[in-house]
């Protein structure tokens, strides 16, 4: 194994016991298939139902697509490794895994921010909604989301795989986890990656603040609305809040 580790890593996220490995594969497979079917159902319904061709559901469809791709980056590989009793992953597998994991995670945070802004404009500035959130703005926002995620993934991957590694290349995780990989660095030359990670974390924090600010503004407006207004607000905001919650639950389960 030491010879093969020169061309990759050994993932040690779970027990070496055969029965526990099979149990891990089954426990991962069931929620993975449910998540795949749920996201495909959302994408299909929004695509086929013309009544749902609005900005809110347009963003929701792309969020479901991102979520579907995100969980497919690491979970199938982990299931296969458990079933084959082989935790080895090559550089050729690890590098794209890191890229897509960071890219899709960053894109999910970005599109959740866009969706919160969409709800803010719809509730707080309804007369200007069609002017601000038109079809072109929606397309540009989605393009920006995917490009920002891709750029983040590219920067992380470039820095992470340019760091010289020492010792046994064992990752105590079920996928190529960047913090675990940084622990294998020969020296403090990984300071650039730490700086990139700090920048990414700061960006995610700004997105979180934006989401919170948007809903604080919405709650402020709700205080002066009638009962019909409250119903309208809930009907437009609940899909976003539900997807945010389900996304976080899926991420925590994997």
From TrEMBL:
Signal peptide positions on this chain: none
Predominant localisation class: membrane
Family listed: Belongs to the G-protein coupled receptor 1 family.
Annotated membrane topology: Multi-pass membrane protein
Record-linked Gene3D superfamilies: Rhodopsin 7-helix transmembrane proteins
Keyword Zinc on entry: no
Annotated TM spans: 20-46, 58-75, 95-115, 136-155, 194-216
Residue ranges of domain G-protein coupled receptors family 1 profile in the record: 38-254
InterPro entries, alphabetized: GPCR_Rhodpsn, GPCR_Rhodpsn_7TM, Olfact_rcpt, Olfactory_GPCR
Subcellular location: Cell membrane
GO cellular component terms given for this protein: plasma membrane
Name listed for the protein in its UniProt record: Olfactory receptor
Pfam families from the UniProt entry: 7tm_4
Gene Ontology MF terms in the entry: G protein-coupled receptor activity; olfactory receptor activity
SUPFAM superfamilies in the record: Family A G protein-coupled receptor-like
General function of this protein: Odorant receptor.
């Amino acid at each position: 194994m030491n010879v093969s580790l020169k061309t990759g890593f050994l993932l040690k996220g779970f027990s070496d016991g055969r029965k526990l490995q099979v149990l891990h594969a089954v426990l991962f497979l069931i929620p993975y298939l449910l998540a795949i079917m749920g996201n495909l159902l959302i994408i299909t319904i929004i695509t086929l139902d013309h009544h749902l061709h609005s900005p809110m559901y347009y963003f929701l469809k792309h969020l479901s697509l991102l979520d579907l791709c995100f969980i497919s980056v690491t979970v199938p590989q982990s299931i296969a490794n458990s079933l084959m009793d082989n935790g080895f992953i090559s550089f050729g597998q690890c590098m794209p895994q890191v890229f897509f994991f960071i890219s899709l995670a960053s894109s999910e945070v970005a599109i959740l921010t866009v969706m919160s802004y969409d709800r803010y404009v719809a509730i707080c500035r309804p007369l200007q909604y069609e002017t601000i959130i038109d079809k072109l703005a929606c397309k540009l926002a989605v393009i920006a989301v995917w490009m920002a995620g891709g750029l983040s993934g590219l920067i992380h991957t470039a820095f992470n795989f340019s760091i010289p590694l020492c010792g046994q290349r064992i990752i105590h995780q079920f996928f190529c986890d960047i913090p675990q990989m940084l622990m294998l660095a020969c020296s403090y030359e990984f300071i650039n990656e730490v700086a990139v990670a700090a920048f990414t974390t700061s960006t995610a924090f700004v997105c979180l603040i934006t989401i919170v600010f948007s809903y604080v503004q919405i709650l402020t407006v709700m205080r002066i609305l009638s009962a019909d207004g409250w119903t309208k607000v809930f009907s437009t905001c609940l899909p976003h809040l539900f997807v945010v919650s389900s996304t976080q639950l899926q991420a925590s389960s994997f």
